[in-house]
């Protein structure tokens, strides 16, 4: 399999080159040249596999430059850290199916990709005798999943900036109680925007970036999308076993990463098997306006009780745009120029009709989110986290359309105890992974919101 850029400006890459490049050098996003299709025979073989075995099969469609035995080891190690034997169990709850994606070490779905990506980075670096220093900013979930993905790994150090005192207490503790020598938590005396601005400025200093082998693990890495494709196919297979031939998915979306993985799964399985994907957003509804009105225009970011979806510019959107614009890199480049100039893209009726063959979309308010957590709990006894509740609320709209509805549960409710308690009257039960969190030793450095201070810290602690 070869990989290309949505902007057409790179020579085709191998899978390994794709992983190490992350963002394409021409500023675009990297995609496989084609999506393999599968037939009934393959699906009936896949239906007998465990989750890691299935992941290995799906990855093999996209990876041809890593020996199968090595890939197998990476996959099995990645999912050995999960606390459920099925990795991503699909459970029937009331009128819908919940696909629990929160059984990894940080209790959010990002572990599914980052546990694998951490091992993959280590493998590729050892192979090349190279080193990497990962630098990133987080307001919560991504940072802790990245830290758990690379803790204790060889040839990688990780520096994650978070706004001091402005991350939820559970999320701050999840990060700062990781005491491995290769993990550096930097609590910045400022806001999340300050953290992001510092990271951006450091990456823009190309000499510094090269000298300290800086790398990123953001959601634009193709390997992350690829890892997420697996659970859509997994859930589809579980329902096919029960005699269902088609399944709807409802996906709480921020950066368009998770739902793009659903789109890839649909390209592999065929639209008759996944007739529609429900794109659920919170009050930050740029993607809902795109699907429903053909209006992709920047709004202001609103803080909500589902903070991991408080996003306006969806970093993976360009991947879908490439397909929507006829896989024409010139049109993608033009569109992205218009967007960066005017903060808006408009789509005509013909394009909009095609978007709506792939997606339906609903924006869910915070009031509706709380209401959904409360009523779902009253009716089924099942506690939803606020992100999952956004997806469930939207997914309920598909109930009368003839196929089962699978709602992706992207976080464990115990990660968001305040919002959940407000809805159901008491905080959710803490799973073992969070027990005694407050008593564990911590490792964190507090720094001012100052580029120079962060650069000095990185320079002193980077692997060279
Ligand atoms: C990151 C995240 C999302 C959104 O996923 P995208 O890939 O950005 O669409 C939803 N829920 C939770 C809990 C997350 O951490």
From TrEMBL:
Pfam families assigned: PALP, THR4_C, Thr_synth_N
Molecular function GO labels: threonine synthase activity
Gene3D superfamilies: 3.40.50.1100, Threonine synthase, N-terminal domain (3.90.1380.10)
EC identifiers of the protein: 4.2.3.1
Keywords: Lyase, Pyridoxal phosphate
Essential cofactor(s): pyridoxal 5'-phosphate
Modification sites for N6-(pyridoxal phosphate)lysine: 110
SUPFAM superfamilies found in the cross-reference section: Tryptophan synthase beta subunit-like PLP-dependent enzymes (SSF53686)
Family: Belongs to the threonine synthase family.
PANTHER family linked to this entry: THREONINE SYNTHASE FAMILY MEMBER (PTHR42690), THREONINE SYNTHASE-LIKE 2 (PTHR42690:SF1)
Stated name of the protein: Threonine synthase
Organism whose genome encodes this protein: Thermosulfuriphilus ammonigenes
